[in-house]
Request: fold
Amino acid sequence: MRLRQLILSLLIVLAVLAGLYLSSTASASLTLKHYLIVVAGFAALMLLQSRQSASEAEEIRSESTDQQLDSLERDFDALLNILNEEFSAQIQSTQNELDQLRAMLNDAIQKLIGSFTGMESTTRHQHDLVIQLTSQQASGHDPNVTNHGGQESITFEDFLQDTTQTLNMFVDNTIDSSKLGMELVTKMDEINLEMDKIRKILNEVEGIASQTNLLALNAAIEAARAGEAGRGFAVVADEVRKLSLRSSEFSNEIRSHMGDVTDSVSKAEDVIHKISSKDMNFALQSKQRVGDMVARVQDINATMKTVVQELAIATDKVEHDVHTAVTSMQFQDLASQLITHSMSRQQALQQILSGIVAIDTAHLDQQNRAAHWHYKLEEARALIERTRHNPVKQVNVDAGDIELF
Amino acid sequence: MQITSRTLNNEATLSLAGRFDFNTHRDFRNTYEAVLKTGGINKLTIDLGGVDYLDSSALGMLLLLNEKAGAANIKIVLANGQPNVRQILEIANFHKLFNIS
Reply:
Protein backbone atom coordinates (compact mmCIF):
# COMPACT_ATOMS: atom_id res chain seq x y z
CA MET A 1 0.00 0.00 0.00
CA ARG A 2 2.73 2.44 1.04
CA LEU A 3 4.82 1.40 -1.95
CA ARG A 4 2.04 2.18 -4.35
CA GLN A 5 1.48 5.62 -2.80
CA LEU A 6 5.20 6.25 -3.05
CA ILE A 7 5.25 5.34 -6.76
CA LEU A 8 2.22 7.51 -7.48
CA SER A 9 3.63 10.48 -5.66
CA LEU A 10 6.88 9.96 -7.53
CA LEU A 11 5.01 9.97 -10.87
CA ILE A 12 3.17 13.22 -10.02
CA VAL A 13 6.37 14.90 -9.06
CA LEU A 14 8.13 13.64 -12.22
CA ALA A 15 5.22 14.85 -14.44
CA VAL A 16 5.19 18.30 -12.85
CA LEU A 17 8.97 18.58 -13.09
CA ALA A 18 8.88 17.49 -16.76
CA GLY A 19 6.08 20.01 -17.55
CA LEU A 20 8.02 22.83 -15.92
CA TYR A 21 11.17 21.83 -17.77
CA LEU A 22 9.48 21.81 -21.17
CA SER A 23 7.73 25.15 -20.66
CA SER A 24 11.01 26.76 -19.66
CA THR A 25 12.92 25.47 -22.65
CA ALA A 26 9.99 26.34 -25.00
CA SER A 27 11.41 24.01 -27.60
CA ALA A 28 9.01 21.24 -26.79
CA SER A 29 5.65 20.97 -28.38
CA LEU A 30 2.40 21.79 -26.61
CA THR A 31 1.08 18.30 -27.05
CA LEU A 32 3.84 16.75 -25.02
CA LYS A 33 3.35 19.40 -22.29
CA HIS A 34 -0.35 18.70 -22.04
CA TYR A 35 0.21 15.07 -22.10
CA LEU A 36 2.49 15.22 -19.18
CA ILE A 37 -0.01 17.33 -17.15
CA VAL A 38 -2.72 14.78 -17.88
CA VAL A 39 -0.45 12.02 -16.67
CA ALA A 40 0.26 13.98 -13.51
CA GLY A 41 -3.44 14.67 -12.98
CA PHE A 42 -4.26 11.01 -13.44
CA ALA A 43 -1.55 10.02 -11.08
CA ALA A 44 -2.91 12.48 -8.49
CA LEU A 45 -6.36 11.04 -8.92
CA MET A 46 -5.01 7.56 -8.40
CA LEU A 47 -3.23 8.76 -5.34
CA LEU A 48 -6.38 10.26 -3.83
CA GLN A 49 -8.27 7.11 -4.51
CA SER A 50 -5.67 4.97 -2.93
CA ARG A 51 -5.59 7.23 0.19
CA GLN A 52 -9.28 6.92 0.63
CA SER A 53 -9.15 3.14 0.55
CA ALA A 54 -6.26 3.27 3.03
CA SER A 55 -8.25 5.29 5.61
CA GLU A 56 -11.10 2.84 5.28
CA ALA A 57 -8.71 0.03 6.12
CA GLU A 58 -7.40 2.09 9.07
CA GLU A 59 -10.88 2.32 10.49
CA ILE A 60 -11.42 -1.42 10.35
CA ARG A 61 -8.05 -2.00 11.96
CA SER A 62 -8.79 0.54 14.76
CA GLU A 63 -11.83 -1.41 15.82
CA SER A 64 -9.82 -4.61 16.13
CA THR A 65 -7.07 -2.81 18.22
CA ASP A 66 -9.76 -1.53 20.61
CA GLN A 67 -10.90 -5.05 21.20
CA GLN A 68 -7.34 -6.18 21.75
CA LEU A 69 -6.70 -3.32 24.20
CA ASP A 70 -9.88 -4.15 26.15
CA SER A 71 -8.75 -7.70 26.38
CA LEU A 72 -5.27 -6.57 27.43
CA GLU A 73 -6.77 -4.30 30.05
CA ARG A 74 -8.83 -7.11 31.47
CA ASP A 75 -5.80 -9.38 31.43
CA PHE A 76 -3.76 -6.66 33.08
CA ASP A 77 -6.36 -6.11 35.80
CA ALA A 78 -6.57 -9.85 36.35
CA LEU A 79 -2.79 -10.01 36.55
CA LEU A 80 -2.82 -7.17 39.08
CA ASN A 81 -5.39 -9.06 41.16
CA ILE A 82 -3.33 -12.23 41.02
CA LEU A 83 -0.22 -10.22 41.93
CA ASN A 84 -2.09 -8.59 44.80
CA GLU A 85 -3.24 -11.94 46.15
CA GLU A 86 0.19 -13.50 45.68
CA PHE A 87 1.95 -10.54 47.29
CA SER A 88 -0.56 -10.53 50.16
CA ALA A 89 0.11 -14.18 50.82
CA GLN A 90 3.91 -13.75 50.56
CA ILE A 91 3.89 -10.64 52.74
CA GLN A 92 1.72 -12.39 55.30
CA SER A 93 4.17 -15.32 55.38
CA THR A 94 7.14 -12.97 55.60
CA GLN A 95 5.51 -11.12 58.46
CA ASN A 96 4.86 -14.36 60.31
CA GLU A 97 8.44 -15.37 59.75
CA LEU A 98 9.69 -11.99 60.94
CA ASP A 99 7.52 -12.35 64.04
CA GLN A 100 9.04 -15.76 64.67
CA LEU A 101 12.51 -14.33 64.09
CA ARG A 102 11.84 -11.53 66.56
CA ALA A 103 10.57 -14.00 69.17
CA MET A 104 13.51 -16.34 68.59
CA LEU A 105 15.98 -13.47 68.81
CA ASN A 106 14.35 -12.21 71.98
CA ASP A 107 14.31 -15.64 73.59
CA ALA A 108 17.87 -16.55 72.57
CA ILE A 109 19.29 -13.24 73.71
CA GLN A 110 17.49 -13.32 77.05
CA LYS A 111 18.93 -16.80 77.58
CA LEU A 112 22.40 -15.66 76.50
CA ILE A 113 22.28 -12.70 78.86
CA GLY A 114 21.11 -15.01 81.65
CA SER A 115 23.88 -17.45 80.84
CA PHE A 116 26.55 -14.74 80.75
CA THR A 117 25.32 -13.20 83.98
CA GLY A 118 25.29 -16.62 85.60
CA MET A 119 28.82 -17.24 84.36
CA GLU A 120 29.96 -13.94 85.83
CA SER A 121 28.34 -14.64 89.17
CA THR A 122 29.87 -18.14 89.26
CA THR A 123 33.32 -16.75 88.51
CA ARG A 124 32.87 -14.11 91.21
CA HIS A 125 31.76 -16.80 93.65
CA GLN A 126 34.76 -18.94 92.73
CA HIS A 127 37.03 -15.98 93.35
CA ASP A 128 35.40 -15.32 96.73
CA LEU A 129 35.85 -18.97 97.70
CA VAL A 130 39.55 -18.87 96.85
CA ILE A 131 39.97 -15.66 98.84
CA GLN A 132 38.12 -17.23 101.76
CA LEU A 133 40.33 -20.31 101.52
CA THR A 134 43.58 -18.37 101.36
CA SER A 135 42.54 -15.91 104.07
CA GLN A 136 41.97 -18.90 106.33
CA GLN A 137 45.42 -20.15 105.47
CA ALA A 138 46.97 -16.78 106.10
CA SER A 139 44.88 -15.93 109.16
CA GLY A 140 47.82 -16.78 111.40
CA HIS A 141 48.62 -13.11 111.09
CA ASP A 142 45.20 -12.19 112.42
CA PRO A 143 44.09 -14.06 115.56
CA ASN A 144 40.56 -12.57 115.29
CA VAL A 145 39.75 -14.44 112.10
CA THR A 146 37.69 -17.54 112.71
CA ASN A 147 36.22 -19.99 110.24
CA HIS A 148 32.54 -20.74 109.69
CA GLY A 149 32.46 -23.39 112.39
CA GLY A 150 33.29 -20.70 114.93
CA GLN A 151 36.40 -22.63 115.88
CA GLU A 152 39.77 -21.02 115.73
CA SER A 153 41.29 -21.82 112.39
CA ILE A 154 44.56 -23.69 112.41
CA THR A 155 47.23 -22.32 110.13
CA PHE A 156 50.56 -23.66 109.02
CA GLU A 157 52.24 -20.92 111.00
CA ASP A 158 50.37 -21.85 114.18
CA PHE A 159 51.18 -25.48 113.62
CA LEU A 160 54.87 -24.75 113.10
CA GLN A 161 54.97 -22.51 116.14
CA ASP A 162 53.36 -25.24 118.23
CA THR A 163 55.79 -27.81 116.84
CA THR A 164 58.76 -25.60 117.64
CA GLN A 165 57.46 -24.99 121.15
CA THR A 166 56.90 -28.70 121.68
CA LEU A 167 60.37 -29.47 120.41
CA ASN A 168 61.93 -26.86 122.72
CA MET A 169 59.95 -28.23 125.63
CA PHE A 170 61.09 -31.73 124.80
CA VAL A 171 64.71 -30.63 124.60
CA ASP A 172 64.41 -28.79 127.93
CA ASN A 173 62.83 -31.85 129.56
CA THR A 174 65.52 -34.13 128.19
CA ILE A 175 68.28 -31.90 129.50
CA ASP A 176 66.53 -31.41 132.86
CA SER A 177 66.12 -35.15 133.37
CA SER A 178 69.76 -35.66 132.37
CA LYS A 179 70.77 -33.05 134.89
CA LEU A 180 68.67 -34.76 137.59
CA GLY A 181 70.25 -38.07 136.57
CA MET A 182 73.71 -36.61 136.96
CA GLU A 183 72.73 -35.23 140.37
CA LEU A 184 71.51 -38.69 141.37
CA VAL A 185 74.76 -40.24 140.15
CA THR A 186 76.66 -37.73 142.25
CA LYS A 187 74.57 -38.67 145.29
CA MET A 188 75.22 -42.32 144.58
CA ASP A 189 78.94 -41.70 144.46
CA GLU A 190 78.53 -40.06 147.85
CA ILE A 191 76.64 -43.16 149.05
CA ASN A 192 79.46 -45.34 147.77
CA LEU A 193 81.96 -43.19 149.65
CA GLU A 194 79.89 -43.53 152.84
CA MET A 195 79.72 -47.29 152.26
CA ASP A 196 83.47 -47.40 151.98
CA LYS A 197 83.67 -45.61 155.35
CA ILE A 198 81.24 -48.12 156.87
CA ARG A 199 83.33 -50.93 155.45
CA LYS A 200 86.38 -49.48 157.14
CA ILE A 201 84.46 -49.31 160.45
CA LEU A 202 83.31 -52.89 159.94
CA ASN A 203 86.91 -53.90 159.48
CA GLU A 204 87.60 -52.28 162.87
CA VAL A 205 84.63 -54.11 164.39
CA GLU A 206 85.86 -57.38 162.93
CA GLY A 207 89.32 -56.70 164.28
CA ILE A 208 87.83 -56.09 167.72
CA ALA A 209 85.80 -59.29 167.51
CA SER A 210 88.84 -61.24 166.41
CA GLN A 211 90.89 -59.80 169.28
CA THR A 212 88.04 -60.46 171.72
CA ASN A 213 87.94 -64.04 170.46
CA LEU A 214 91.67 -64.39 171.04
CA LEU A 215 91.30 -62.83 174.51
CA ALA A 216 88.46 -65.24 175.36
CA LEU A 217 90.60 -68.09 174.16
CA ASN A 218 93.52 -66.96 176.37
CA ALA A 219 91.11 -66.49 179.30
CA ALA A 220 89.80 -70.04 178.83
CA ILE A 221 93.38 -71.40 178.83
CA GLU A 222 94.19 -69.46 181.98
CA ALA A 223 90.94 -70.65 183.63
CA ALA A 224 91.80 -74.27 182.81
CA ARG A 225 95.24 -73.78 184.35
CA ALA A 226 93.66 -72.43 187.58
CA GLY A 227 91.79 -75.70 187.91
CA GLU A 228 88.71 -75.87 190.07
CA ALA A 229 89.09 -72.24 191.11
CA GLY A 230 88.89 -71.09 187.45
CA ARG A 231 85.80 -73.02 186.52
CA GLY A 232 83.48 -69.98 186.82
CA PHE A 233 85.89 -67.84 184.82
CA ALA A 234 86.03 -70.50 182.13
CA VAL A 235 82.27 -70.15 181.69
CA VAL A 236 82.64 -66.36 181.36
CA ALA A 237 85.48 -66.76 178.85
CA ASP A 238 83.35 -69.11 176.77
CA GLU A 239 80.50 -66.63 176.80
CA VAL A 240 82.85 -63.84 175.69
CA ARG A 241 84.13 -66.06 172.86
CA LYS A 242 80.54 -66.75 171.80
CA LEU A 243 79.85 -63.01 171.81
CA SER A 244 82.90 -62.34 169.67
CA LEU A 245 81.74 -65.01 167.22
CA ARG A 246 78.26 -63.49 167.11
CA SER A 247 79.83 -60.08 166.55
CA SER A 248 81.80 -61.53 163.61
CA GLU A 249 78.61 -63.06 162.22
CA PHE A 250 76.85 -59.68 162.45
CA SER A 251 79.75 -58.01 160.71
CA ASN A 252 79.59 -60.54 157.92
CA GLU A 253 75.86 -60.08 157.67
CA ILE A 254 76.25 -56.30 157.48
CA ARG A 255 79.00 -56.68 154.88
CA SER A 256 76.75 -58.92 152.85
CA HIS A 257 73.87 -56.40 153.02
CA MET A 258 76.24 -53.62 152.06
CA GLY A 259 77.32 -55.69 149.08
CA ASP A 260 73.65 -55.89 148.07
CA VAL A 261 73.30 -52.11 148.50
CA THR A 262 76.41 -51.52 146.38
CA ASP A 263 75.02 -53.83 143.71
CA SER A 264 71.68 -51.99 143.77
CA VAL A 265 73.38 -48.61 143.56
CA SER A 266 75.42 -49.87 140.63
CA LYS A 267 72.27 -51.13 138.87
CA ALA A 268 70.52 -47.84 139.61
CA GLU A 269 73.45 -46.05 138.04
CA ASP A 270 73.07 -48.19 134.92
CA VAL A 271 69.40 -47.19 134.75
CA ILE A 272 70.28 -43.54 135.23
CA HIS A 273 72.92 -43.94 132.53
CA LYS A 274 70.22 -45.07 130.11
CA ILE A 275 67.83 -42.31 131.15
CA SER A 276 70.37 -39.51 131.12
CA SER A 277 72.28 -40.35 127.96
CA LYS A 278 70.07 -39.12 125.16
CA ASP A 279 71.51 -38.40 121.78
CA MET A 280 70.76 -34.76 120.98
CA ASN A 281 70.82 -35.22 117.22
CA PHE A 282 67.07 -35.96 117.28
CA ALA A 283 66.51 -32.34 118.28
CA LEU A 284 68.83 -31.07 115.57
CA GLN A 285 67.05 -33.15 112.94
CA SER A 286 63.61 -32.07 114.15
CA LYS A 287 64.67 -28.46 114.14
CA GLN A 288 66.03 -28.88 110.64
CA ARG A 289 62.73 -30.40 109.50
CA VAL A 290 60.70 -27.59 111.07
CA GLY A 291 62.97 -25.07 109.36
CA ASP A 292 62.47 -26.82 106.00
CA MET A 293 58.73 -26.84 106.58
CA VAL A 294 58.68 -23.12 107.38
CA ALA A 295 60.50 -22.44 104.13
CA ARG A 296 58.06 -24.64 102.20
CA VAL A 297 55.03 -23.03 103.81
CA GLN A 298 56.42 -19.61 102.95
CA ASP A 299 56.87 -20.80 99.36
CA ILE A 300 53.31 -22.12 99.27
CA ASN A 301 51.95 -18.88 100.74
CA ALA A 302 53.86 -16.84 98.18
CA THR A 303 52.54 -19.04 95.35
CA MET A 304 49.01 -18.79 96.72
CA LYS A 305 49.26 -15.03 96.88
CA THR A 306 50.36 -14.89 93.24
CA VAL A 307 47.60 -17.29 92.20
CA VAL A 308 44.96 -15.27 94.03
CA GLN A 309 46.19 -12.08 92.41
CA GLU A 310 46.11 -13.69 88.96
CA LEU A 311 42.67 -15.11 89.70
CA ALA A 312 41.42 -11.67 90.72
CA ILE A 313 42.69 -10.23 87.42
CA ALA A 314 41.06 -13.09 85.50
CA THR A 315 37.78 -12.60 87.36
CA ASP A 316 37.80 -8.88 86.64
CA LYS A 317 38.45 -9.66 82.98
CA VAL A 318 35.58 -12.15 82.85
CA GLU A 319 33.35 -9.56 84.51
CA HIS A 320 34.40 -6.96 81.98
CA ASP A 321 33.96 -9.37 79.05
CA VAL A 322 30.55 -10.46 80.28
CA HIS A 323 29.55 -6.83 80.71
CA THR A 324 30.64 -6.13 77.13
CA ALA A 325 28.79 -9.22 75.91
CA VAL A 326 25.60 -8.27 77.77
CA THR A 327 25.83 -4.73 76.47
CA SER A 328 26.35 -6.04 72.95
CA MET A 329 23.29 -8.25 73.36
CA GLN A 330 21.17 -5.15 73.56
CA PHE A 331 21.42 -4.88 69.77
CA GLN A 332 18.39 -7.14 70.05
CA ASP A 333 16.18 -4.11 70.82
CA LEU A 334 17.37 -2.41 67.68
CA ALA A 335 17.03 -5.59 65.64
CA SER A 336 13.50 -5.92 66.94
CA GLN A 337 12.74 -2.34 65.95
CA LEU A 338 14.24 -2.96 62.52
CA ILE A 339 12.06 -6.01 62.06
CA THR A 340 9.01 -3.95 63.04
CA HIS A 341 9.99 -1.29 60.51
CA SER A 342 10.55 -3.91 57.89
CA MET A 343 7.07 -5.28 58.56
CA SER A 344 5.56 -1.79 58.31
CA ARG A 345 7.27 -1.34 54.95
CA GLN A 346 5.78 -4.58 53.70
CA GLN A 347 2.37 -3.44 54.87
CA ALA A 348 2.90 -0.22 52.96
CA LEU A 349 3.79 -2.19 49.83
CA GLN A 350 0.67 -4.26 50.37
CA GLN A 351 -1.45 -1.13 50.72
CA ILE A 352 -0.04 0.32 47.51
CA LEU A 353 -0.74 -2.82 45.55
CA SER A 354 -4.24 -3.27 47.01
CA GLY A 355 -4.97 0.40 46.40
CA ILE A 356 -3.93 0.20 42.79
CA VAL A 357 -6.11 -2.87 42.28
CA ALA A 358 -9.04 -1.21 43.96
CA ILE A 359 -8.95 2.02 41.92
CA ASP A 360 -12.51 2.25 40.65
CA THR A 361 -12.82 3.34 37.01
CA ALA A 362 -16.37 2.13 36.47
CA HIS A 363 -17.89 5.63 36.41
CA LEU A 364 -15.57 6.74 33.64
CA ASP A 365 -16.52 6.57 30.03
CA GLN A 366 -15.13 3.32 28.80
CA GLN A 367 -14.48 4.84 25.37
CA ASN A 368 -12.21 7.48 26.80
CA ARG A 369 -9.32 5.14 27.26
CA ALA A 370 -6.66 7.77 27.62
CA ALA A 371 -8.60 9.49 30.43
CA HIS A 372 -9.19 6.12 32.02
CA TRP A 373 -5.47 5.26 32.15
CA HIS A 374 -4.57 8.76 33.14
CA TYR A 375 -6.99 8.61 36.06
CA LYS A 376 -5.61 5.24 37.13
CA LEU A 377 -2.02 6.50 36.97
CA GLU A 378 -2.87 9.65 38.93
CA GLU A 379 -4.69 7.63 41.63
CA ALA A 380 -1.79 5.23 41.91
CA ARG A 381 0.71 8.11 42.16
CA ALA A 382 -1.43 9.77 44.87
CA LEU A 383 -1.66 6.46 46.72
CA ILE A 384 2.12 6.00 46.62
CA GLU A 385 2.52 9.57 47.83
CA ARG A 386 0.12 8.91 50.71
CA THR A 387 1.88 5.71 51.77
CA ARG A 388 5.21 7.50 51.59
CA HIS A 389 3.99 9.62 54.53
CA ASN A 390 3.12 6.52 56.46
CA PRO A 391 4.47 7.08 60.00
CA VAL A 392 7.31 4.60 59.62
CA LYS A 393 10.39 6.11 61.16
CA GLN A 394 13.41 6.13 58.95
CA VAL A 395 16.07 4.05 60.66
CA ASN A 396 19.63 4.05 59.58
CA VAL A 397 20.83 0.49 59.54
CA ASP A 398 24.44 1.61 59.49
CA ALA A 399 26.16 -0.25 62.34
CA GLY A 400 28.02 2.92 63.29
CA ASP A 401 24.74 4.54 64.28
CA ILE A 402 23.64 1.73 66.58
CA GLU A 403 23.80 3.07 70.06
CA LEU A 404 24.34 0.50 72.78
CA PHE A 405 23.19 1.25 76.26
CA MET B 1 87.64 -38.91 127.21
CA GLN B 2 90.69 -37.03 128.35
CA ILE B 3 90.53 -34.09 130.72
CA THR B 4 93.38 -31.77 131.48
CA SER B 5 93.22 -28.74 133.73
CA ARG B 6 95.46 -25.75 134.18
CA THR B 7 95.14 -22.63 136.22
CA LEU B 8 96.61 -19.26 135.38
CA ASN B 9 96.15 -16.45 137.92
CA ASN B 10 92.42 -16.47 138.72
CA GLU B 11 91.33 -18.25 135.56
CA ALA B 12 91.16 -22.00 135.17
CA THR B 13 90.74 -24.03 131.98
CA LEU B 14 89.48 -27.59 131.58
CA SER B 15 90.38 -29.06 128.18
CA LEU B 16 88.22 -31.95 127.07
CA ALA B 17 88.90 -34.39 124.23
CA GLY B 18 86.92 -37.33 122.86
CA ARG B 19 83.30 -38.29 123.61
CA PHE B 20 81.68 -36.20 126.32
CA ASP B 21 79.01 -38.56 127.70
CA PHE B 22 77.76 -40.37 130.82
CA ASN B 23 80.94 -42.41 131.26
CA THR B 24 82.86 -39.15 131.74
CA HIS B 25 80.81 -37.97 134.72
CA ARG B 26 83.12 -39.12 137.52
CA ASP B 27 86.36 -37.82 135.97
CA PHE B 28 84.73 -34.58 134.93
CA ARG B 29 83.18 -33.94 138.34
CA ASN B 30 86.32 -34.85 140.23
CA THR B 31 88.40 -32.56 138.03
CA TYR B 32 86.13 -29.51 138.31
CA GLU B 33 85.55 -30.02 142.02
CA ALA B 34 89.30 -30.06 142.53
CA VAL B 35 89.58 -26.84 140.54
CA LEU B 36 86.70 -25.18 142.42
CA LYS B 37 88.28 -26.11 145.72
CA THR B 38 91.48 -24.33 144.69
CA GLY B 39 89.85 -20.98 145.42
CA GLY B 40 90.70 -17.54 144.10
CA ILE B 41 89.23 -18.36 140.69
CA ASN B 42 86.54 -16.22 139.05
CA LYS B 43 86.44 -17.76 135.60
CA LEU B 44 86.40 -21.37 134.46
CA THR B 45 86.76 -22.08 130.74
CA ILE B 46 85.62 -25.44 129.43
CA ASP B 47 87.58 -25.95 126.21
CA LEU B 48 85.44 -28.21 124.02
CA GLY B 49 87.82 -28.05 121.03
CA GLY B 50 88.66 -31.75 121.27
CA VAL B 51 85.09 -32.93 121.86
CA ASP B 52 83.64 -34.67 118.82
CA TYR B 53 80.37 -35.75 120.46
CA LEU B 54 78.24 -34.81 123.43
CA ASP B 55 74.90 -36.12 124.64
CA SER B 56 72.23 -34.95 127.07
CA SER B 57 74.16 -36.24 130.11
CA ALA B 58 77.06 -33.94 129.17
CA LEU B 59 74.59 -31.04 129.01
CA GLY B 60 73.27 -32.10 132.45
CA MET B 61 76.81 -32.15 133.81
CA LEU B 62 77.51 -28.68 132.43
CA LEU B 63 74.30 -27.40 134.07
CA LEU B 64 75.32 -28.89 137.43
CA LEU B 65 78.77 -27.32 137.05
CA ASN B 66 77.11 -23.99 136.25
CA GLU B 67 75.01 -24.19 139.43
CA LYS B 68 77.99 -24.99 141.59
CA ALA B 69 80.19 -22.37 139.94
CA GLY B 70 77.40 -19.81 140.23
CA ALA B 71 77.21 -20.47 143.95
CA ALA B 72 80.95 -19.76 144.11
CA ASN B 73 80.66 -16.66 141.87
CA ILE B 74 82.68 -18.27 139.12
CA LYS B 75 81.77 -17.55 135.52
CA ILE B 76 81.70 -20.51 133.11
CA VAL B 77 82.79 -20.10 129.48
CA LEU B 78 82.20 -22.81 126.87
CA ALA B 79 84.91 -22.39 124.25
CA ASN B 80 86.04 -23.70 120.86
CA GLY B 81 83.10 -26.06 120.21
CA GLN B 82 83.05 -27.78 116.84
CA PRO B 83 80.04 -27.00 114.61
CA ASN B 84 78.00 -30.06 115.64
CA VAL B 85 78.75 -29.34 119.32
CA ARG B 86 77.81 -25.68 118.92
CA GLN B 87 74.52 -26.65 117.24
CA ILE B 88 73.59 -28.84 120.18
CA LEU B 89 74.51 -26.09 122.68
CA GLU B 90 72.36 -23.71 120.65
CA ILE B 91 69.33 -25.99 120.49
CA ALA B 92 69.64 -26.50 124.27
CA ASN B 93 69.45 -22.70 124.65
CA PHE B 94 72.80 -22.73 126.49
CA HIS B 95 73.65 -19.29 125.14
CA LYS B 96 71.14 -17.98 127.70
CA LEU B 97 73.00 -19.63 130.58
CA PHE B 98 76.62 -19.70 129.48
CA ASN B 99 79.10 -17.49 127.79
CA ILE B 100 79.84 -19.40 124.60
CA SER B 101 82.91 -18.42 122.63
